[in-house]
Write a structure and sequence with these properties.
- This protein is mainly alpha-helical and about 190 residues long.
- It has ten helices and no strands.
- Helix 5 crosses helix 6 and helix 6 packs across helix 8.
- About 40% of the residues are buried.
Length: about 190
């Protein structure tokens, strides 16, 4: 497989994504994907690039009619492998693309939940990922008004498709995010307003 470098993928992300919060989300999902790949003996570069680029077109093409189809066309034009493109297309449930590869299943199981864990962290008084526990994430998932745009059914479906324990999966993502807490602004003492 001819996989472009991480630097090339980051440049592509930055070309289409100016928002710091979307870049942090891309970096977070990249890291969670790499961590998951390492735990399974899978290709960390492949998983990481899929995680980083899954929403790279979202800022410019946010509608369901465009995202991630516009991005998949750009990825094809730039020579990204079909495995990357298919996994990214699979994270949009409205496209009904089967998630057959492990990378596609991990992306779907981690994407929304990673963003949700950010939201849970931000409402903690400390704003620190180190104080977030699966119990608090599950409690917030039950509150429909909290991070209302996050599709709870997609989170549950992703966990089911991946075939993992719900609490263990939530803890896995929390633990992965803790490793790069400062970079993501999840340590509590990092001012991201500068």
């Amino acid at each position: 497989m001819n996989l472009p470098s991480r630097d090339d993928a980051w440049d592509l992300l930055c070309e289409y994504t100016e928002s710091d919060s979307l870049r942090r989300h891309a970096r977070a999902v990249e890291h969670v994907m790499r961590t998951y790949a390492a735990s399974q003996g899978a290709d960390e570069e492949l998983f990481g690039i899929i995680g980083m680029l899954h929403d790279f077109d979202y800022e410019k093409y946010p509608s369901m009619e465009e995202h991630p189809m516009v991005g998949s066309k750009i990825l094809r034009e730039r020579g990204y492998p079909e495995e990357v493109i298919t996994a990214i297309l699979g994270h949009a449930p409205y496209l009904n693309i089967p998630r057959e590869s492990l990378a596609a299943k991990v992306l779907f199981a981690c994407d929304e939940l990673t963003g949700f864990i950010f939201a849970v962290t931000y409402v903690r008084p400390s704003r620190s990922i180190h104080e977030v526990k699966p119990k608090s994430v599950k409690k917030k998932l039950k509150q429909a008004s909290f991070a209302a745009s996050v599709n709870r059914a997609d989170i549950e479906q992703g966990i089911a498709e991946l075939g993992v324990d719900r609490d263990a999966h939530i803890q896995f993502i929390i633990d992965a995010l803790r490793v790069i807490d400062e970079e993501l602004g999840l340590r509590g003492d990092v001012d991201l307003s500068l």
